[in-house]
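Section 3.1: Structural characterization of target chains.
Under the original work plan, the team committed to producing a structural model for every single-chain target entering the pipeline before any wet-lab resources were allocated. The record below documents one such target. The sequence was received from the expression subgroup and is listed exactly as submitted; it comprises 55 residues.
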Amino acid sequence: MKKIDKITEIRIEEVIDEENNENYYWVYFVRNGKIEIIGKSSEKPQCYRQIAIYQ
C-alpha cells in the first residue's frame, strides 16, 4: 500500500516586477514539508474546490 502524501499548502503568488515591467504568477505547493514549484504563469490561475463522496 502506497503512503499518502501530506500536502499542507497550495499557493498562487502574484509577482509584480516593476524593474523589468513584468507581471506573472508563481504556482507551488508544500508536500511532505518540501516546497515544490508547479510553474510560472502569465495568466491568473483559477482555483476550484471539488468534493467527491464515495459510498
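The chain has one domain: 1-55.
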